[in-house]
Amino acid sequence: MKLELLVAREAFGDIFTETLKDYLVNEFGWSGRIFWDSGYSFRSSALLVNGRINLIYPKTIPVSELRELASEYAFGDTLIRRILQMVYVRYSVNFPFRCIFSTDHVLIDPMPPECKNWCILPGNKSIRIVNLHNNKCVVLKKKGFPKKHFYSVVNIRTAYPEIPGPKILSFDMSRGWYVEDRINGLPLNRVDDQCRKTAAMCSAQTFMLGLYRRTSEPIRLSDWVASMAAKLEGSLMVLEGKIDNSLIADVRRVAAHLCVACREAYGAKFIETAQTHGDFQVGNIFIPNEPNAGNVFLIDWEFSERRCRWYDAFVYSLNARSPQGLSQRVKLWMRDPDLAYRSVKWCGLTFDLFNLRFLVACFLIEDLSFRLDEEAEPQIVSPSNEFRAYFRELFLIESQEFRYDL
What we know:
Blueprint: H1 3-9, H2 12-28, E1 33-38, E2 46-50, E3 55-58, H3 63-70, H4 79-92, H5 97-101, E4 104-109, E5 118-122, E6 126-131, E7 136-141, H6 148-159, E8 168-172, E9 177-181, E10 185-187, H7 194-215, E11 217-220, H8 221-239, H9 245-264, E12 270-276, E13 285-288, E14 297-298, E15 305-308, H10 311-317, H11 326-335, H12 337-344, H13 356-375, H14 385-401
Antiparallel strand pairs: 1-4, 2-3, 2-4, 5-6, 6-7, 7-9, 8-9, 10-13, 11-12, 12-15, 13-14
């Protein structure tokens, strides 16, 4: 999530400064003050903040380094937008334009020498420090956020070191940081070379299929439905007061309908679960810049957990992380099961067991849990527009495909 959106949904400035302060104190014995302020600062100990390219960096960082880090934002879905974004990225990191285009600054007084080689990338659950001196990244758990997502990353990437991507070099669970190699590449949707995109996607799917096979476990369907219902209710209770009571009531109704659909649309007593990535979408599938780095990097494992085996395949093929039009995409699948099967068969589903109504209902329950869990973080003060757009689409799906009289 870009910095502009993070600032709108949470007190990001306070979270950022407290997170960075803890790291500097614990790892460098630093003492001083850090604060986030709007506008430009003339002080040399200030970091510039540019929300449009999602970077926080010292004024003296070389232009070439900044361009490389900001390169994924030099793309657009139309020719005009691409040109405008390329121009913006080019000039927003140049001297003296980088000062003009920065909207905020972070003052570190005194600034440790190490910070002068850092570029910082904010994120949903963590803050990533790119050390340009040694090409390593330090990933910090954001202050006040639960540890479970941080644990998920460390646990799965140490349990499966063959995951394509950077290797975790060291970590400290108690202090909430880990160190990994820096990677150079672009996400799938920022690359024009169709052959490289196809090869990367094939490699990503092959790895994930192997992970599903190694971690596959059948769970009694009634137990799975009960556990998911309890999980959804727990998230809704946390969200009370953050979102309208009418929306909470609607979500409860939709969840109940989906649970009924799972039980009534499938004859077997078990559901196959496996370890999933959790956010398997184009922004987390990277194509390396270096030819000897392999075909693909899979990044951002914060949401990795055991789910229905087909969850990742549905996230990707339905473009579920972009809620606009999701109901239409689901409707198209429900009307054309052959199209749906061809889109997701790579995850290991066999056609003879391809009960689409059941599969979609299970996926929607898992995805509803994902969305609620994302917004139930204690530090998030205002649900995002994307969160509300998702529920508008979900209600359309429920009314068209899963309406029951309960």
